[in-house]
Write a structure and sequence with these properties.
Layout: E1 6-11, H1 14-23, E2 27-30, H2 46-58, E3 62-67, H3 76-86, E4 93-96, H4 99-108, E5 114-116, H5 125-134, E6 136-140, H6 147-159, E7 163-170, H7 182-187, E8 219-221, H8 226-231, E9 236-239, H9 246-266, E10 284-285, H10 287-290, H11 306-313, H12 319-344, E11 352-360, E12 365-372, E13 375-384, E14 386-387, H13 395-402, E15 410-412, E16 416-420, E17 424-425, H14 428-442, E18 468-473, E19 488-492, H15 503-510, E20 514-518, H16 525-537, E21 541-544, H17 547-556, E22 559-562, H18 571-581, E23 585-587, H19 594-597, E24 607-620, H20 639-644, E25 648-652, E26 658-662, E27 670-678, H21 681-686, E28 692-696, H22 710-721, H23 726-734, E29 738-739, H24 741-745
Parallel strand pairs: 1-2, 1-9, 2-3, 3-4, 4-5, 5-6, 6-7, 7-9, 8-10, 11-15, 11-16, 18-19, 18-28, 19-20, 20-21, 21-22, 22-23, 23-24, 24-28, 27-29
Antiparallel strand pairs: 7-8, 11-12, 12-13, 14-17, 24-27, 25-26, 26-27
InterPro entries: Peptidase_U32, RNA/ubiquinone_mod_enzymes
Protein name: Peptidase U32 family protein
Organism: Psychromonas arctica
């Protein structure tokens, strides 16, 4: 084989990163204590990061920094300051979720390579083209994809100079990454801000199928799928685990390094994966890759499975046998800890020692001698020093200019001025030139990129002076609602379509007032069928929660609005979509609060929307929630499940809170909060900002809640927009179980 297969390892702290390097990782992804989606990891200081980059590069290992959270408007200056620092560190790439960072990097930091995080839920061809258009150099494909889907997307990515990476080991989320709000809704800790509380691992009341942990998946392992991933063209094999310790990281990376090397050298695989069971695991599955979504993907225990596996492997049944097996495993675990600790102790991320000596005599050049870790560089001025009492180059003047080198990279000794004569000068412009040459050497013999100051953004006028109402429906039977309102009517399209079936297309054709509303997840044939609707109907306008459909609309010249599940939280995200893909408007995220909304700047001729009434989606999954709850006779999910299944149930956590598990025809299994989102405060606060306020009348996610009189709801919402405050109380009386907690707490 000639193609490089990158092994990408997690690094939650310095020791874990060292362990990954010594175990043979080709690249490492790690985070600082800000802007990263694993805030429970120890994470790095900026000084640590600089040292890690130096150490990793000595081992020909790349370093990628995770900036994989949504960014708030007030954080843009801090983010810009960080990007100004990163461009001169030698970082090999940044991993990004927020679309606004693409705009910033493309305009102001083009030397940085952007990797699209798994949080961007990349699962169809249009999304690959979308990411290529906005500047991604790599895409982390959704964990839910099978090998055929991965192969198709990777080929397209390569055609557009985008690399692909796939998770091959570690924890699996039951929900589509980037489309999970369970932690945000239930405890106010958003997964989109790195604070996931892992509600999917929680204990629930025992379900009808007999499970206490009905959402808990086994860990991912593609150990025996390496040949298929190589054949699919995948560029990077990614290990999950930034909250895992050094012993875990070393064990998994070392095992995978041996597997990859064996396959490259011999074309064969190692059969022994026993080392992977000696560190934390929840047992293993490769069902997503195989496209075989069975009940065996679940395990009714979220804790470490290694001891259970050891008992089973050794057929330990009696108390004595179990004690012996468990002690042997504990000894093995302790041995791993000690061995890894000894290995990482030899690796150093300390700052380099730097000495600067300044010299100059009459009629000689001004000279700076640089000594870095015993390497010496000499920089001289072009002109020679001349006598001057009034404008002499003093040690204080030099120290002032050169103090910036006392930074994250270097331990700087006291400046040496012993060879610099008094009362001499050179033009201060030349002194600056000398400083820049010194900076060049201290930057690894690369030009230093100057810091960027962002220009202030202008907030442009609204398109509509008075905000209007819009509604979402999903059933043609609700078409009569158009008779009682002038509101825009969005028609929710399903996540799955029967191949070459024209049902949805014909509904839209019969109802020209309906504006197509595309869901967040569209995989394989379902994306193709959604595109066919666009191509055959050519609607004037759409709303899409899927960036792949956004790209297709852009390509066709169709006006498109970014839906609420694109989770837009800042002005630069709006600019990315408008400037790169001609987006006409966007919903602002329902996860952010009034203070986080108020400073968002509207682009010119751009519509801004906000949802004030909707069911609160907690998670959507490609797996089946019913196998572990009410039970299902089918051993695995079939193609027809999406189109035919219409089950619904509830699950109740140990705190007694129930959640609706809802499976609409043509939809993925989803879980909704027990409360509806209802937010009149946003109308009071932001009628001068939003052009349109939106209400969801689909009944999806309502579970056993009482169905509302939709005609009356529309009337009361419109009355409220017209200034009737009593209408809010009327609606609140109708919608008895509601909340706007996310609007209060924000991110």
């Amino acid at each position: 084989m000639s193609r490089k297969i990158e092994l990408l390892a997690p690094g939650g702290d310095v020791d874990a990163i060292k362990a990954a390097i010594i175990a043979g990782a080709n690249a490492i992804y790690c985070g600082l204590d800000i802007f990263n989606a694993r805030n429970r990891a120890a994470n790095l200081s900026f000084d640590d990061l600089v040292g890690i980059i130096k150490l990793a590069h000595e081992y020909e290992c790349e370093v990628f920094l995770t900036l994989n959270v949504v960014i708030l408007e007030h954080e843009i200056p801090t983010l810009t300051k960080l990007l100004n620092q990163l461009v001169n560190t030698g970082i090999d790439g940044i991993i990004v979720q927020d679309l606004g960072i693409f705009n910033l990097v493309k305009k102001f930091f083009p030397s940085l390579h952007i990797h699209a995080s798994t949080q961007l839920t990349t699962h169809n061809e249009g999304q690959i083209l979308f990411l290529a258009k906005i500047g991604a150099t790599r895409a982390n494909l959704s964990r839910e994809l099978n090998l055929t889907e991965i192969k198709i997307l990777t080929a397209l990515a390569h055609d557009n100079e985008v690399l692909t990476e796939v998770f091959v080991h570690g924890a699996l989320c039951i929900a589509f990454s980037g489309q999970c709000y369970s932690s945000s809704v239930s405890v106010g800790n958003s997964g989109n801000r790195g604070r996931c509380s892992q509600a999917c691992r929680d204990e629930y009341e025992v379900t009808a199928a007999g499970n206490k942990f009905p959402l808990n998946l086994k860990d991912n392992s593609a150990w025996f799928d390496l040949p298929d991933l190589v054949e699919a063209g995948v560029d990077s094999l990614k290990i999950e685990g930034r909250i895992k310790g050094a012993q875990y990281v070393h064990t998994v990376v070392d095992s995978w390094r041996q597997q990859i090397n064996t396959f490259v050298d011999t074309g064969k695989l190692l059969a022994d994966d026993s080392a992977l069971y000696k560190v934390f695991n929840r047992d293993f599955t490769n069902s997503f890759l195989k496209g075989n979504l069975t009940k065996d993907m679940f395990i009714d225990n979220p804790r470490d499975n290694s001891f259970t596996h050891a008992n089973e492997k050794n057929n330990a049944i009696s108390v004595v046998q179990i004690q012996e097996v468990q002690q042997d495993l504990r000894d093995d675990k302790n041995k791993i800890v000690d061995e890894v600790a000894a290995k990482v102790a030899t690796l150093n991320i300390d700052k380099s020692d730097l000495a600067l000596s300044f010299s100059g005599q009459l009629d000689t050049p001004f000279t700076v001698t640089i000594v870095i870790d015993e390497k010496t560089f000499i920089v001289e001025s072009n002109s020679k020093m001349i006598a001057s009492e009034q404008s002499a180059v003093t040690s204080d003047a030099i120290a002032k200019r050169f103090k910036s080198f006392k930074n994250s990279r270097y331990n700087v000794a006291e400046f040496d001025f012993s060879q610099l004569a008094d009362s001499l000068t050179i033009p201060f412009k030349e002194l600056t030139d000398v400083k820049n040459k010194v900076a060049y050497y201290l930057n690894g013999e690369k030009d230093v990129i100057s810091a960027v100051t962002l220009p202030a953004l202008t907030s442009h006028p609204k398109l509509n002076e008075t905000p209007t109402l819009s509604i979402l429906i999903s059933d043609e039977k609700d078409a009569h609602l158009g008779d009682v309102t002038n509101a825009d009517i969005y028609f929710k399209l399903p996540e799955s379509f029967k191949k070459r079936c024209n049902k949805q297309r014909d509904i839209l054709a019969r109802n020209p007032r309906f504006i197509p509303w595309f869901p967040a997840v569209l995989i394989g044939k379902d994306y193709i069928e959604a595109v066919r609707i666009l191509e055959e109907l050519k609607p004037e306008r759409i709303v899409t929660n899927n960036t792949g459909i956004a790209y297709k609309a852009f390509e066709m010249g169709i006006e498109w609005i970014a839906g609420p599940f694109l989770n837009t939280t800042n002005s630069y995200a709006l600019l990315t979509m408008q400037e790169e893909l001609n987006c006409a408007g966007a919903f602002i995220s329902n996860e952010i609060n009034r203070n986080q909304i108020k400073n968002i700047k509207r682009p010119a001729n751009f519509k801004m929307l906000y949802s004030i009434y909707h069911p609160i989606l907690m998670m959507t999954s490609r797996q089946c929630f019913f196998q572990q709850t009410v039970g299902c006779n089918k051993p695995s999910i079939e193609d027809g499940c999406m189109l035919k299944c219409q089950k619904a149930t509830t699950i109740t956590n140990v705190k007694g809170i129930s959640f609706a598990v809802d499976k609409q025809l043509g939809g993925y299994p989803s879980i909704y909060n027990h409360e509806q989102f209802l937010n009149f405060d946003a109308v009071r606060d932001f009628s001068d900002l939003f052009d349109e306020f939106f209400i969801d009348l689909t009944d999806i996610g309502s579970g056993s809640k009482e169905k509302q009189d939709k005609v009356q709801l529309i009337k009361h919402f419109e009355d409220f927009l017209a200034g009737d405050q009593q209408a809010a109380a009327t609606v609140t009386g109708m919608v008895t179980v509601s909340t706007n907690a996310q609007y209060q707490q924000g991110l």
